Amino acid sequence: MADEIDAALATYEELMDLEKDFEDVETEIIRQQVALSKSLYEKRAKLVAKIPNFWALVFEQAPPDLDQYIQPSDSAVLLTALSNVSVSHFEIEDGGKGDPRSVSIKLEFSENEWFEDKVLEKKFWYRVSKEGEEGLVSEPVPIKWKSAEKDLTQGMLDLVIKVWENDKKQGPSDSTKIKKEKDYTSDEKALKEKIEATGLGGVSFFGWFGYRGLNISAEESRLAVEEERKKRAERAAGKVPELKEVTEEEDDEDDEDEDPLALEIFPDGEEVALAISDDLWPNAIKYFSQAQEVDVSDVDFEDEDEDEEMDDDDEEEKPKANGS
C-alpha cells in the first residue's frame, strides 16, 4: 500500500512538473512575440495617431471582460478625454531578462474636467509567493482630482494611497502575513467602510488604479521561484518528495480565515489588466472597425426611418377612394 501511495505521489508530481513545463513554453512564446511584434506596434501607433478619437472608440467597443467594469461616469471621461493607450512588457525591454508577463499599461488624456493628470501609468509585476500562489501584483497610482466632487472613486483611491504609504513605512513583509481586522488603522477602517458601502458593482473603473493584489515582494518571489526550480530538478533526477506532517495550529484565532484582499477596492484588477494587455491592446484595430460598423448601422437605421416617414406622408397625401 505504501508503495502505491509513493507511486501515485510521484505520478502527481510529474504531472505538475509537466504543467510547469507547458507554462514555461507559453512564457517563452510571450517573450518571442513581444520582440517580433515590437515594430508592428510602433507602426500602428504612428497610424492611429492620425485618427481622431481612435482609442476612445476602441474602449467604447471594449470586450465584456473589460466593459463590465466601466461605469457611465467612466465612459464620459474615456470618450471625451482618452487620447492614447500603450502597453509594454517592461521587464524584458532593452534586453532585460525579467518575466515577460509583467506589464505596464499607460493611458494618456487630454485636458478634462475630472483630473489634472495627463498620463496615468500602472505597472504590474508577475510574482510567485512562498505558498505557490502566482499572478500580477501592483502599486496604487494616485490621481489628482480637480475637486472632491469630480473624484469618481469617491475618496477610496486616496485612502488606498494613505494605507499603502503607511505599509511601506512598516518595512518589508510577505504574503503570509495578513493583518487582522482588529488591528486596522483608522485609515484602513475608513477604507473598509467605504468598500462595504459602495459594493463591488459600484466601483469606478478608475478604482483599478488602486489595485495592489497579493503582498508578494520581489525577494519572496525570487526565492519561491528558486525553490520550485530546485524541487523540479530533484524530481527529474528521480528523488521522491517527502510527505510533510499536518499539525494543528496554535489556537482557534489563528485558524480563522483572513481575506488578503479585504482592503482591495478593485479585487479584479488583474483580470482588467489582462483584458487590456491581452485583448484590447493587440486587437485594437478590430474593435475600432467594429465601432465604424456600429456608426454605419446607426446611419442605415436613421435612413430607413426617414424613408418610412416619407412613405407614410405620401400615403396620407394620396386622394382617397370614391373621391372623398
Brief digest:
With 324 residues, the chain is an alpha+beta fold. It has ten helices and four strands; from the N terminus they run ααααββββαααααα. It has helices spanning 2-48, 54-60, 64-67, 72-81, 156-169, 186-198, 218-236, 252-255, 269-280, 284-317; strands spanning 82-88, 103-109, 119-128, 134-138.
Which tags fit this structure?
10 helices; 51% helix; four-stranded antiparallel beta sheet; 9% strand; 324 residues; 4 strands; disordered C terminus; alpha+beta
Notes on the protein architecture:
The chain is an alpha+beta fold and 324 residues long. 51% of the residues lie in helices and 9% in strands. It is built from ten helices and four strands; from the N terminus they run ααααββββαααααα. The protein has helices at 2-48, 54-60, 64-67, 72-81, 156-169, 186-198, 218-236, 252-255, 269-280, 284-317; strands at residues 82-88, 103-109, 119-128, 134-138. The chain has a four-stranded antiparallel β-sheet with strand order 1-2-3-4, with helices on both faces. Strand 3 and strand 4 (134-138) form a beta hairpin. Helix 5 runs antiparallel to helix 6. The longest helix has 47 residues, at 2-48. The model is unreliable at 248-255 and 318-324 (pLDDT under 50).
